[in-house]
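Suppose you are handed a protein chain with no further information: no name, no annotation, nothing but its sequence. What can you learn? This example shows the usual starting point.
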Amino acid sequence: MVGTKHTLVEHEALDGVVVTACVSDTKLFDKIEAHGGALYDTMQEADAVADRINEKYAADGGIVPDLLNGAHMSGFTKKVRVSGQRLYIPIRTGPGTS
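A reasonable first move is to predict its three-dimensional structure. Written in structure tokens, the prediction is:
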């Protein structure tokens, strides 16, 4: 076992709100990364990212996929669930963006 990491998922009661979830299954680590999700070493780091995402999109009425800005994808996927919640896929604009 590698240890616990943290990722971003959709809030269980508030559609479109990003929250942090703990992950300790290494197979799930691989699945999260394969689907474009992010893993963080600390909950504080993941919480800070979730806060920035929620603040940025609050004025826009929620998280909306935007493929016109060079992003790979943004939003939630039902293909990967963590503790029953849909995985959040962040916008990718750096190296490796497809």
